[in-house]
Amino acid sequence: MIGTRKRSLHARGIERRRLLLESARALLCERDLDQVSLADVAARAEVPKSSAYHFYADMQALYAALLVLAQEELIQVLSQPLRGRFQTWQDVVTTLTKRGAAFYMGNATARQLQIGPKTPPALKLYDRRSDITIAQLYEAHIGSVFKLPAIANRSRLFYRAIEIADLMFCLSMLEHGSLTKNMCREADRAASAYLATYLPTVLAYRNAEAPGYAVAGHAALSHSAQKRTG
Question: Could you give the CA distance from residue 28 to residue 115 in angstroms, rounded to a whole number?
Answer without folding.
Answer: 14
